Amino acid sequence: MKFTGRTTRPSRPYRPERQLKDCELEKAAVDMRAQVERVKYHATCLEVKLEETTTELEQMKTQRDTLHNKVVRLDQSLMHEQGMKAFLRKQLDETKEQLAYQKSLKRVFIKKEKEVRNELKRLKRHSDKETIDSVEIPTETEYNLRKKQKKALQKEFDELKVAHVISQERFSAELQAEREKNIALQQEVTQLKVAYDTNVSYESDLKAEREMRHLLQRQFERVCQSRPERALRDPELTEQPKTERDAQLGQ
């Protein structure tokens, strides 16, 4: 046996405690990486969902603006229709007043005509034939004149009566059309209200999603900050225990 001049140092036994600790650290690092990956994946999904919901929200805002403009136009149209209705009512009242005035005027002329006839009869009874003959021409002329006036008044009265009937029918038709328009406007306003309530609910859900995303982001940051420095170095966690085991086997 040759003496080489070197003393062989006994190999240090591999302590099970250290091996167990390294295994636990390696397992903790793997779990931590898996948890980080899950958090990253969940955060990515939330970002995609947030982008989609943001796009949908913008579309909803555009639709809401369009609906708002439509409501404004409908309000203006409703105000115009109400003004037209008031104008037609005023015109109908004026027509009724004019018709009543014409009726009153007709009654006055009829009364005057009766008075003239009575006066003519009285003159015929109390006057002689010459006086009657002398009075006949102007009286007959006046009677013919009043008869023409009566015919003119009767014609005007009939025209006003026909105009009143036509105006009444037109007013009834326009009033019915206004009622139908008001019903349609009320239905559209109800639909707009439902759409607005849906938009408000959608915005609340989006706000909750944003808060959840911020909460997950803060949790992810706390996890990253609380990990030990050794857990952040993934290659060392996997290679160092293997290197130490190889060194022990080589010895």
Structure overview:
The protein has 251 residues and is mainly α. It has a single domain, classed as Helix Hairpins (Orthogonal Bundle). It contains four helices and no strands. It has helices at residues 16-126, 129-226, 229-232, 234-250. It starts with 15 loop residues before the first helix and ends with a helix. The model is unreliable at 1-14 and 235-242 (pLDDT under 50).
Give the tally of structural domains: 1
Q: What overall geometry do the principal axes of the alpha carbons give?
A: rod-shaped
Beta-strand residue fraction: under 5%
Approximate helicity band: over 70%
**Quaternary arrangement of the chains shown?**
single chain
Alpha-carbon Rg, integer: 53 Å
End-to-end Cα distance: 21 Å
Order of helices and strands: HHHH
Mean pLDDT: 73
The class by helix and strand makeup works out as mainly alpha
